[in-house]
Amino acid sequence: MAKKTKSDSTETEAKTEKRGKRQQTIPGTERKSIDEVDDAAEAFRVARNKRQAATKVETEKKAVLKDILRKHGIKSYFYEDEDGDTEEVQRTEEVKEDVKVNKVKQAKAKADE
Long-range contacts for 38-44 (Cβ within 8 Å, ≥24 apart)? Predict the structure, then answer.
């Protein structure tokens, strides 16, 4: 295979400059802007970005909870949330360690008391 020389690369650049852009803009064929679609897309983007930020915070809080449960050797823990509902925190160690917080149905919560 032959090595490229300086003149080969200059020749290629010259061809590219002659061609210009691959796709030219033709007057009258611009994309039409639909305000309703633009607004909906922007609202979606904002909601998505908020969710992504919230997911990051949730992941960090879950890691802290997981470490505390591991430190205390707890696999299952019940507590009362701000609304007065009983929540169960479970630390699982199947394939990878995970933590879940589930709302407990009233009948099960009363039976465990």
Answer: none
